[in-house]
Every structure is written in C-alpha cells, then in structure tokens.
Amino acid sequence: MNPHTFDVVRGTSASRTALIVAVLLVALAASLPFWGESSWMREFVEIACYFIFAMMWNLLAGYGGMVSIGQQAFFGFGGYVMLMLGNFLGLNPFVAIPLGAAAAALIAVPVSFVAFRLSGGYFAIGTWVIAEVFRLSFANLSAVGGGSGTTLTALRGIEKATRENTTYWMALACVVAAIALVYLFLRSKRGLALLAIRDNEVAGESQGIPVARMKLAVYVVAAFGAGMAGALYFVGNLRISPDAAFSVNWTAFAIFMVVIGGIGRIEGPLVGALIFWAMNKFLSDFGTWYLLGLGLLAIVVTIYFKQGLWGFAQQRWGWSLFPTQRRLVLPMPSTEKRPAPVSSTPHLEIPAHAKHQ
C-alpha cells in the first residue's frame, strides 16, 4: 500500500446502528394508528411540527449563519394557503399541505430581496418586521375571517378516525423527509459551501462559492419547511388565526429548541423538540412557573453546555447519529517498516558509583 494514500470516512458505527434503529422505529411508528390511541397521534403531530420548524431554523441560522426571528411568516403563510385551497377551491387539505409549503417557498423569493439588504442584527429585526406585515395583511382579509380567524371546513366530510390517521401519517412522512433532505444536503458539496459561507462570506466568495445564490437557496428551503410545518399544524388544529399563525413565539420556541439541543447539529432540534414538548406537556399547568422553568433551563444550558446537550454528548462520548463531516484516516505502516516498539517510560542507565548515593 502506498504510504501517502488515505481513506475518507464519512460514517461511524453509531450512525450505522442509528440508521437500523431509525428504520425500525419508523416502521413501528407507521403502524401506530392500528394499535395506538388517538391522543398519541395528536401529540406526535404536535412534536413533528415543532421539530420541522426548529430543523428549518437550524438550517438557516446554525448552518447558514442567517439568524432570523421572523420565520413565522412562512409558517403562517403555508397554513393560510392550505386553508384557502381547501375551503375555497375544494382541494383535499392533505394534498394542499405540500402546495402550501411550495407557496411559502415562492413568496420567500421576493421577500429575500428585502431581507438580504440587511445583515447581522438588522437582518433579524427585519425578518420580524416582515412577519408582522404578513400578520396584519391576513388580519385585514375578511375572506379568511380577518383578525378572529376561521375554521378549516374542507375536512367536514371526512370521518374523524380517517382524518386523524391521515394527519399522523402525513406528519411522519414530513419528519422523515425533512431529516433526509437536510442530511443529504449537508453531506453534499453545497453543504460544504454553506458552512464556508457561515464561517466567512468573503473567504468563501474568494474560493469561487456563489454566496448570494447559496444564501437564497437556503432561505427558500427553510421557508418551504416552515410552510410545511404550518400547513401540517393547522390541518391538525382545524382552525387558524393571524395571531396564532404569525406569532413570534414560534421562532422563540424554535430558538429555544435548537439552543437546548445543539445548534449546527441535525440531532439538536430533535432533542430540543422532545424536551420542549415534555415541559409543555407536564409543566404548562403551573402557569408562569412553566415559563420560568423554560428560561432557567435555557440559562443553565447556555452557561454549562455551550454547544447544547447533544453537542456535550458528542464531545464527551463521540456520539454522531447524522455525521456530515469528512474524516481522513491514514493507513498503518507495514510490519516490515514498522520501527521497534518504544516503551512509554524512558529507561535510564544509572552508573554503578551513583547507585549508593
């Protein structure tokens, strides 16, 4: 073997084991409507919406370096497009979910012309202002209920069990698609280009990376995922209003989940979504103490686990369920050329006349 050759390793034993476990879990989850309770499916749909929205925010900010606090604009827009397609055009709302996501991606293109004129903190505040413009615009549309909102009437002719089962399967498919899409994107050359842009735009552009085009692509993909999460959420909720759809709490929750789980990691939003759902489920009855608990947890994690809970576990034990980095492994030298083993403890010769001193 040529001693100058090396191997590029992208997977780990943990990732291969995780893939097998994930396939088994998805197969088990797909059968839940046949043996589980309807409350379990509703809880899963809620977790799925949290996770997908947090995953898209992590892609935009954690990998792309574009910190936005206005992603709820595309969340609500996807939900409203789904409702209008169902109520006004008679389209099946489940078919309208991907169409609502596509509409959010399309509207993100002209929005980006305004948002990308800003940078840093101005970009974050600007996206929030854009989201407020969306909220006020839909609040003045009487056709969709104005400020009080309206109900998704397109599902009236569908039985409750069929509606819940289909919503659950759609949520499961959207979760798998979101993970696979982000994972494959980050493992590609475009993923490397995105990380280079996040670290230093000027250096990335000097290496031939189309910075503006890459940022636009990531912004549009993040809007698509946020729109899909919004359409899915309001199919399960059956009612939509501007205050619920375009609330800044959606982005605040996404930031909380990503920071708690670990920003810049695919596993981070998953861990953060589970923790946020558990706290929301079991502590929300305590009122303001619940919000104080969320803030206290965020403070503890940011002080003692600066890279998030999963980031700490990855550094401590080397866990990586979705490895995106490339590792170079140098081959071991042949046995003929390998030097004689050297003891880790040096051996010192002591002269005879010094042994008695």
From TrEMBL:
<dbReference type="Pfam" id="PF02653">
    <property type="entry name" value="BPD_transp_2"/>
</dbReference>
<feature type="transmembrane region" description="Helical">
    <location>
        <begin position="247"/>
        <end position="266"/>
    </location>
</feature>
<feature type="transmembrane region" description="Helical">
    <location>
        <begin position="96"/>
        <end position="116"/>
    </location>
</feature>
<feature type="transmembrane region" description="Helical">
    <location>
        <begin position="167"/>
        <end position="186"/>
    </location>
</feature>
<dbReference type="InterPro" id="IPR001851">
    <property type="entry name" value="ABC_transp_permease"/>
</dbReference>
<feature type="transmembrane region" description="Helical">
    <location>
        <begin position="136"/>
        <end position="155"/>
    </location>
</feature>
<keyword id="KW-1133">Transmembrane helix</keyword>
<keyword id="KW-1003">Cell membrane</keyword>
<feature type="transmembrane region" description="Helical">
    <location>
        <begin position="216"/>
        <end position="235"/>
    </location>
</feature>
<feature type="transmembrane region" description="Helical">
    <location>
        <begin position="72"/>
        <end position="89"/>
    </location>
</feature>
<feature type="transmembrane region" description="Helical">
    <location>
        <begin position="17"/>
        <end position="35"/>
    </location>
</feature>
<feature type="transmembrane region" description="Helical">
    <location>
        <begin position="286"/>
        <end position="305"/>
    </location>
</feature>
<feature type="transmembrane region" description="Helical">
    <location>
        <begin position="47"/>
        <end position="66"/>
    </location>
</feature>
<dbReference type="InterPro" id="IPR043428">
    <property type="entry name" value="LivM-like"/>
</dbReference>
<keyword id="KW-0472">Membrane</keyword>
<keyword id="KW-0812">Transmembrane</keyword>
<protein>
    <submittedName>
        <fullName>Branched-chain amino acid ABC transporter permease</fullName>
    </submittedName>
</protein>
